[in-house]
Amino acid sequence: MAIISEISYLRDALVNAIRFYYHFLVSMYMDESMIDEPPENGWETIPNGWINFEKTDEVIDLLRRLPYLSYEV
Question: What was the pLDDT predicted at 72?
Answer without folding.
Answer: 67
